[in-house]
Write a structure and sequence with these properties.
- By secondary structure, this protein is α+β, with helices and mostly antiparallel strands.
- It has two domains: 66 residues, Nucleic acid-binding proteins (OB fold (Dihydrolipoamide Acetyltransferase, E2P)); 124 residues, no CATH class.
- It is built from five helices and five strands; from the N terminus they run βββββααααα.
- The radius of gyration is 24 Å and the shape is rod-shaped.
C-alpha cells in the first residue's frame, strides 16, 4: 500500500530531495523515481510513494506521485517588475543603454534615408514578440510549467527582436544571471549595434523602394 508524506526538501537543479512521513521519517526522493507523467514536485507537496532499498541499502521513495500540490505563492507581474537588491543596477543600465542606442540608430538611419521605414517596423514587431516570449517564460517559471526554450528566445532576438528582448530582461528581471545565455544575448546585441551603426553612418546601404 502506498505511503503518504510531505516533500520537505527539494533540489530542483539536481532533481532530488526528501519526503517525510507522519512518523517523522525522511526518505530520499530522486526525479527518476517519479511515476510516469508526473511533473517535478515542489516543497510542501503531499506525495504518495512506495519504499524500496536505495543507495547504501537505505530506504528510498519510488513510484512517487503528487497527491496534493502545495498552493503556489500569489505573485503578480508587479512583483516580478519590482526592483531587487540582488540585481546589479549597472547591468540593468547596460541593457537600457543598448536598447536605446539601437532605437536611436534605427531612427537616424530612417531619418537620413539610409534605411527603409519597414526596417523600423520589423524591429518594433519582432521586439514586441520577443518581449511577450520573455513575459510568458517568466510566468511559466513561476507556475512550474514548461518553459520557452532558450534557443527560441535567442532566435527571436537575433531576428530583429533584440530591443524588446533586452527591455523585457530588465523589466521582468529574467534571464540576467546564466552566463552562457547572457553572453549570447550580448553577442546578438553587439551584432545588431554594429549593423545599425553601419547603416546610420552610410557605410552600408539597404535598397529603398
Amino acid at each position: 500500500m502506498p505511503r503518504s508524506g510531505e516533500l520537505v526538501q527539494w533540489n530542483n537543479k539536481g532533481g532530488f530531495g526528501f519526503v517525510r512521513d507522519a512518523a517523522g521519517n525522511d526518505f530520499y526522493v530522486h526525479i527518476s523515481k517519479l511515476a510516469e507523467g508526473q511533473t517535478r514536485p515542489r516543497i510542501g507537496d503531499r506525495l504518495s510513494y512506495d519504499v524500496a532499498s536505495g543507495r547504501n541499502g537505505r530506504p528510498a521513495a519510488i513510484n512517487v506521485a503528487v497527491a496534493v500540490a502545495a498552493p503556489l505563492p500569489e505573485r503578480s507581474m508587479a512583483d516580478i517588475k519590482r526592483p531587487s537588491g540582488a540585481v546589479s543596477r549597472y547591468k540593468v543600465g547596460l541593457r537600457t543603454a543598448a536598447a536605446t542606442m539601437m532605437t536611436l540608430l534605427i531612427l537616424l538611419a530612417i531619418g537620413t534615408d539610409r534605411a527603409p521605414v519597414w526596417l523600423g517596423g520589423t524591429y518594433a514587431l519582432m521586439g514586441a514578440a520577443s518581449a511577450l516570449l520573455y513575459r510568458f517564460d517568466k510566468l511559466y517559471a513561476l507556475s512550474g510549467r514548461w518553459r520557452v526554450s532558450e534557443l527560441n528566445l535567442h532566435v527571436v532576438d537575433f531576428c530583429f527582436g533584440i530591443i524588446g528582448g533586452l527591455a523585457a530582461q530588465e523589466v521582468y528581471r529574467h534571464k540576467t544571471v546564466k552566463p552562457r545565455f547572457v553572453a549570447t544575448t550580448w553577442a546578438i546585441a553587439l551584432l545588431h549595434v554594429i549593423g545599425l551603426a553601419a547603416l546610420a553612418m552610410g557605410w552600408v546601404s539597404v535598397a529603398l523602394p
